[in-house]
Amino acid sequence: MSLAERKTIAANANNLEYIASYLEQDTESLQQAGQQLALKLQRTLDVDLLLSIFCREASELVPCQSVAYRNDEMSLFVYHGEKHESICHYTLELEDEHLGTVECSAERPFTEKELIRLEHLLALLLFPLRNSLMYYKAVQTAHKDPLTQLANRIAFDSTVETEISRAERHASGLCMLVVDIDHFKSINDSYGHLAGDQVLKQVAKCMTDTLRKEDQIFRYGGEEFVILLSSTELPNARLTAERLRINLEKLIVKALELTIPVTASIGVAEWQQGELGNTLFHRADQALYKAKAAGRNRVLVA
Predict the structure, then answer these.
(1) Does the CA dihedral 142-145-150-156 come out positive or negative?
(2) Phi and psi dihedrals of 181, rounded to 5?
(3) Side-chain half-sphere of 255: how many Cα atoms within 13 Å?
(4) Cα–Cα distance between 146 and 141 in angstroms, integer?
């Protein structure tokens, strides 16, 4: 494998002047293509769309077969093309802020001029990318519950229909669990709201530890949580709910030198063809209320 380790791409005058000096011999069409790319990159704050545009356009302006962007801190990965043996790798920085890394590959080793051209394109990406990442962080923050660090109801509303579309497109199962901590008001009244907050945080951790990484957990409101189980049929969803109920029953919350027992009631519903997200939630929620009416600390299926 041929690896060209290149310098960090950063927006500073010396770097941009160095790059520009190698571009004077570029054809007018290539210069215009670079200008058009710069304009396209300024038209969106959607980080996935921005990086997809860059990967696609860059692979046409520089003879490379793949362009990949990665930002592990934000769990972002965008890939375009098919990876080959010759690789060049860049770290992206702007005002000492790490923006991620880019890796390009080609069937043959890159020439120096091709690498300089690619560095010019990456320099065009820096400011739009930072703006998109700032917007991405703001959206992520708005979609996260600050107490439990789980996704919140806003995130649930925007996610459930996406999951339904995926289940419909791939003809795969989708199930929803609605979880409610039993007698949570009594916990707050007896032990105080600080202890209640600890219960919520440890219940959230227990759910995260019990479920698969691909399962999505949301704090819907108060002591109620919603879980989306993708690619899951009803029998497995019921088993998952029962395993979660047992783990929560075993959970002993220690808060403010107190020991607080916890149980939860869980309603389960399987998505039906043509069903909307609010209908699916209503059926799971009704199953939850039946579980609570039947004595709590149990799982019932819609």
Answers:
(1) negative
(2) -70, 125
(3) 22
(4) 8
Report the alpha-carbon distance of residue 55 to residue 42 in Å, rounded.
Answer: 15
Separation of alpha carbons 12 and 107, rounded Å: 31
Alpha-helix runs per DSSP H in the chain: 13-21, 28-41, 47-61, 112-142, 153-170, 184-191, 193-210, 234-250, 277-293
Phi/psi for 289 (5° steps) reads -65, -35
Each of the 302 residues of the chain gets a pLDDT tens digit; together they read 455 555 665 544 445 454 445 445 456 666 677 788 888 999 999 888 888 888 888 888 888 888 889 998 888 888 888 888 899 999 999 888 999 999 989 888 988 888 888 888 888 899 999 999 999 888 888 889 999 999 999 999 989 999 999 899 888 999 999 999 999 999 999 989 999 999 999 999 999 999 998 999 999 999 999 999 999 999 999 999 999 999 999 998 887 788 899 999 999 999 999 999 999 999 999 999 999 999 999 999 99
Tokens of 2: 């041929």
What are the residue numbers of the active site? 223
Rounded distance between C-alpha atoms, residue 289 and residue 275, angstroms:
21
How many Å is the maximal CA-CA distance in the chain? 79
Name the one residue in this structure whose structure tokens are 């707050």. 188
Considering only CA atoms, which of 291, 292, 301, 280 is closest in space to residue 226? 280
Q: Hey, what are 145's tokens?
A: 């519950």
> Are the C-beta atoms of 219 and 149 separated by less than 8 Å?
no
Q: Are 184 and 199 in contact (CB under 8 A)?
A: yes
Name, in order, each residue with C-beta under 8 angstroms of 279's C-beta and a sequence gap of 6 or more. none
* Best CA proximity match to 88, nearest among 53, 50, 117, 60: 117
